[in-house]
Amino acid sequence: MRAEFQPSAAKGVAAVPPSKSMGHRMLICAGLSGGPCQVKGIAPSQDMMATLDCLAAMGVQYDWQGDTVTLRGGDLFSSPKEVVSCRESGSTLRFFVPLFLLGKQKVTLTGEGRLMERPMGVYQTLCRERTLLFGQEGDKLYVRGPLQPGLFTVPGDVSSQFISGLLFALPLLEAGSVLSITPPVESRPYIEMTRQAQAMFGVESVWTDENTLRIFGGQRYQPVDTVVEGDWSNAAFLEGFNLLGGDVTVTGLIENSLQGDKIYKKYYKMLQNGCPELDIQQCPDLGPVLMALAAANHGATLTGTRRLAIKESDRGAVMAEELEKLGVHCLRTDNTITVPGGQLTRPTEVLSGHNDHRVVMALSLLLSRVGGTIEGAQAVSKSFPHFFDCIRSLGVEVELYDA
């Protein structure tokens, strides 16, 4: 699908979608509780479907009406006999591997796009140390438990999703465990979001120091009804129009959220006032939109960019490639990206979304100013399926065509 933009300004009020990150976590906790319980505020997206597919593979039954999912049943220690697809959701894959390791039977997982290219070495090492099966052939991943409690040492600078995955599973074991995270601990807010979701369902862990979590064994998730808060990650794209001459008010956010991406408000002020240095080590999902808005304003240098390479695309590289088509030449090192400002021109060729929802949305901001076309615009279905309807309602002139 292609999205063709004409220069236009975004003005109005937009309700932010529910948080994808919290949606994953609440669905998992609800599914692990046995239910029945309701999770309200689940926006339809490929990532949410991936998590529900995995829960269904564990025997969880669910009913999805509007934005509310009702979950019940499930056998946490049984293993699905069919291949389980995680679609293109890195969160789903990494959250469920430890849960599938609770059982004694071999489980086969698969995915789409670049999912099976994303690093899984943390789990591979843990399984090897415990003589558990962990193997990968092409687009299929094989695991077999049973996982036993104990001391788990994991690196903190690969992905917090590995830590969250263990946090979901370890409380279900009969004895307690210790999770030792080797510093630096990146994306710490996401670890806290997992713990917050678990606490809502009656499961707790405690920090014994800044890098060590004690996880009590013998716990059980309790069924409760919950509501998913608004998504600060997607709000960043909507409020990004305000740095391009727009006037957009975003509703549905809570100010005391643990979501790390809420730092975009601070970073946007810095982009408006100069050419700042912005550390995205704790908020890598903001990388594409910050690169886009830096190019449209005074420029910026992003630090802590190494992990952009292991997302749905190599986000640092592909954003630099597409910005080049807009007249912006970025300078990249292993862990920094410098984006010059004030050089935007209308592209003379079609931009590529690189099958990455955040790249498509970031480029959409820029094309709303200068005009142009993005190929692969359907990638927004991963997290924000009605993105184009939303920005149209704000006055952005964009037409969608089958490629």
Provide the gyration radius in Å: 21 Å
- Order of strands side by side in the largest beta sheet? 20-21-1-22
Number of strands: 22
The CATH superfamily of the largest domain bears the name Enolpyruvate transferase domain
> How many helices does DSSP assign?
12
Low-confidence spans: none
CATH hierarchy: architecture of the largest domain: Alpha-beta prism
From the N-terminal CA to the C-terminal CA, the straight-line distance is 5 Å
Helicity range:
25-40%
Write the CATH fold name of the largest domain. Answer: UDP-n-acetylglucosamine1-carboxyvinyl-transferase, Chain
| CATH class term of the largest domain | Alpha Beta
Average pLDDT for all residues: 95
Topology (elements, then pairings):
Blueprint: E1 2-6, E2 11-15, H1 20-33, E3 37-40, H2 46-57, E4 60-65, E5 68-73, E6 84-85, H3 90-100, E7 107-110, H4 121-129, E8 133-137, E9 140-144, E10 151-155, H5 160-169, E11 177-182, H6 188-200, E12 205-209, E13 212-215, E14 226-227, H7 232-240, E15 247-251, H8 264-273, E16 277-279, H9 287-296, E17 299-303, H10 315-325, E18 331-332, E19 336-340, E20 351-352, H11 357-370, E21 372-375, H12 387-393, E22 397-401
Parallel strand pairs: 2-15, 3-14, 6-7, 10-11, 16-17, 20-21
Antiparallel strand pairs: 1-21, 1-22, 3-5, 4-5, 7-9, 8-9, 11-13, 12-13, 17-19, 18-19
Helix pairs in contact: 1-2, 1-6, 2-3, 3-5, 5-6, 9-10, 9-11
